Every structure is written in C-alpha cells, then in structure tokens.
Amino acid sequence: MYIYGKNSVKEIENSKIISCYLSHDFKDKDIINKLTCKIKYMKKHELDKIVDGLHQGIILKVEDYKYSNIDELIKEDGFLVILDHIEDPHNFGAIIRTCESANIDGIIIPKDRSVEVNGTVMKVSSGTLDKIKIAKVTNLIQTINYLKEKGYWIIGTDMDGEDYKEIDYKGKIAIIVGNEGKGLSKLVKENCDFIASISMKGSINSLNVSVATGIIIFKALEKR
User: Do 105 and 79 touch, CB atoms closer than 8 A?
Assistant: First the structure.
C-alpha cells in the first residue's frame, strides 16, 4: 500500500515502511530525519505516476493495513460505528477521523462492495488511522446479530426515522450509516433496533454521509 502527503507519513511507524520516494525539492527536514529506510529521489511527474492524489513530494510504500478481529472492538458500555457499503475513500477517511476524535471503540466494514483502507483513506484521515481499530466482516447481518447477542443496540441512520435527538444512546450501541447513494440496505435497516433521522431545514433532503455520521456520533456522546 502507498501512503502520501506530509500528515499521513508523519504518523506511520518506521517498522511498517518498505520504501521511501521523495521529490528532489522536498525540504521537510523533520520528516526526512525520521525516515530510516533508504530514500529514492524522483521527479514530480514520476511520483505522479505512483499515486493519484496530492502527494506533496513524498510517497511511502508501507505494509498493508492489518484489520482487527471484531471481538477486539467489543467493550463494556461499547460504542461502534458500522459502514454499510461506503464506497468513497474520502468519506471513509473523514469518518475515521471523526470516530477517532470521539474515541469510538472501532469501525466495522463489509468485505465486499466497500472501500478498503488505502492511501487516500490514510491521507484524508490525517494520520488517525493507526489510532482506531477497523474490522472487516463477511456478512453485516450476521455481525449485527452477533453484536445484539453481546448486548448492543443497533441504531441505523435514514431519512425515514425518528428524530436523532430523541433516541436513547445509553448502553452498548452500534451506529450504522449507509451507502452514499442508496443509504442503508433493506436487510440492514430491517435488523436495526432504531432508525435515527436528521431533519433538513433547507432545500436539500440529505447530508454528506461523513457529515451526518459526525452529527449523530457527537449527539450520542452528549446523551451518554
């Protein structure tokens, strides 16, 4: 996996770095002095061919992200976030950043039809990725039922639900947010204990998924 951008590479452990690629005019001495691997200097257009994003003159090849087991995320009075087939790495990265700032126990994503941890996710999450656990599961419905057995209340998010401010967020909870275009899948929605809805005051009928996730997470924290 390639990660890029100054904020991302500042947080990565040297033991995870395989290769280092810097532009000839990269001048950040703090980052350069931190790197223990051999540095290969390249022209900007050569770096542009490695990643599709704003690399700021530095790209690292690192070990692939190691996902956690779901049992590592389960805590007493736990708080989890489940992503129902989020596809945009920018949304995923923003959600990771929000979850870390709220000290969420972990994030659960499905293996199929979902964005995985990659360089763009790492960059958008601004280096918070290594500070939060992410589990990748085969079946979301089975996972939801497993969490229910462990005492979690499952709270979905959808336009057609009750006011998110009126829901009881105490105890073990898992908040589920849906796909950018389709929202929650039918079976996931049917297996939720509550559906939280953010009412819109303007002309649009929905928020960006990462924005909506942040609003509900911090309302839950406030009420817990």
Answer: yes
Q: What does the alpha-carbon distance between residue 143 and residue 74 come to, in Å, rounded to a whole number? A: 12
Dihedrals phi, psi of 68, to nearest 5 degrees: -90, 160
**Residue 175, both tokens:** 């908040």
Point out the domain boundary residue: 21, 44, 62: 62
Give the predicted TM-score (pTM) of the model. Answer: 0.85
What digits encode the pLDDT tens for the residues 113-126?
888 888 888 888 87
Distance, CA of 26 to CA of 33 (rounded, Å) = 12
- DSSP code of 105? S
Integer CA distances (angstroms), 36 to 19, 29, 32, 121, 146, in order: 10, 13, 9, 24, 43
Task: Tell me what pLDDT residue 22 has.
Answer: 93
The parent domain of residue 25 ranges over: 2-62
